Amino acid sequence: MGRQISPAAVVYIVAMIAVIVAVDILFFRGRFWPRLLVNIGMVVVFLAFYLRFFRHG
Predict the structure, then answer these.
(1) What is the C-alpha to C-alpha distance for residues 15 and 10, in angstroms, rounded to an integer?
(2) In a domain, 7, yes or no
C-alpha cells in the first residue's frame, strides 16, 4: 500500500520551496550558474535537516 506524507513534511517542503524562490528572486536574478549552485546547496541543507530531525524509523 502507499505511504502517507505527514503534514509536517508537507509544510517543510513548502517552506523549502518558498526559501529557494525568495533567494532566487532577491539575489540571483539573471545569473544561471551561481543560482543553480546555491539552489542545489539549499536543497542539500534542507535534506540534511529533514533526515536529522523529521525522519522516523
Answers:
(1) 9
(2) no
Is there a contact between 38 and 23 (Cβ–Cβ < 8 Å)? yes
CB 29 within 8 A of CB 56: no
User: Taken in order 57, 20, 23, 43, is the CA torsion positive or negative?
Assistant: positive
Q: pLDDT of the chain along its 57 residues, tens only? A: 567 878 888 898 999 999 999 999 999 888 999 999 999 999 999 999 888 887 765
Written as one letter, the residue type at 34 is: P
Q: Is residue 29 part of a domain?
A: yes
Number of domains in the chain: 1
pTM across the whole model: 0.78
Q: Which domain holds residue 33?
A: 12-53
